[in-house]
Amino acid sequence: MTEMLNGSDFGGILVHNFSEKILEQVVHFHVMKLNEGFFLWVGSAPALSNLAVSMSSKYDSMPLSTLVMGDPSNTAANSLAQRLAKRTKKQVFVSYSLPMTDSSLSLLVENRIKKELELHPENF
Amino acid sequence: MAEPIIKSRQAQKEVNGISTEVVCTQFSNYIFVVLTQYGKIGTLISVTPDSRSNDISTPTFSTKVLLGKDEPLTHVCAKNLATFVSLEAGNRPVLLGLALKDSSIDTIQEIKEIIKSCKVW
After folding, report:
1. CATH number of the domain encompassing residue A97
2. Residues of A in contact with B33 (CB under 8 A)
3. CATH architecture, domain defined by B8-118
4. Could you tell me which Gene3D superfamilies the record lists for this protein (chain B) (predicted)?
């Protein structure tokens, strides 16, 4: 019963979890693979504190990104969603629930996501 | 491998001939429910219990479309589908992703049963 959805061979929603100790703290990642998109949550405690959505537009080389939930002064979710949308060409939902104070942490977190994208592209 | 800190459950079922997927994910401050017949999140709606309606009256809920077409039927479906989740989850707000081809009352009822089979709260 595989239905062709918008020309893609989407095999159903897939949930994938992984975690990594980064700068002395355990960072958890939760990915929900969707049809032509994915939802990614990053955090150290199981709270959903914000949500950004990003997708490519034919009018701009940078994907459009918007925060639909949470504090707009915190740009981490927004910019991460935008970079992941650019990289994957998909609709990307990102919730980034880590403290914003440490910029090296967010860099390492992003590198960990990129590594997972390379190792397990089938999960995104 | 250690237990993930985010608990989720999912189910897939034919509803009125349409493949329907449900994913419920538990966060400490939200229950995230994806109900989709397109494999996409679609319209995002937050369903929030109104603060401190007194104990005697039935609780009321506010719905807000965060992303997508803001039409009355969306609010009706969201409230119908998510109210019981919020109540059962100790009045936690529900974030609902809704992408349905069929929003008939029979379909909504059936989908509610699938949500019950994906209880993470």
Report:
1. 3.30.230.100
2. none
3. 2-Layer Sandwich (3.30)
4. 3.30.230.90
Domain of residue A109: give its range: 17-123
pLDDT for A124 equals 96
- Nearest CB partner across the interface for B6, out of A12, A17, A68: A17
- Averaged pLDDT, B60-84: 97
Count the domains in chain A.
1
Q: Indicate whether A7 belongs to any domain.
A: no
ipTM comes to 0.92
Q: Which long-range contacts (CB under 8 A, 24 or more apart) does B111-116 make?
A: B111/B15, B111/B20, B111/B22, B111/B35, B111/B81, B112/B80, B112/B81, B112/B84, B114/B11, B114/B13, B114/B15, B114/B20, B114/B22, B115/B22, B115/B24, B115/B33, B115/B35, B115/B81, B115/B85
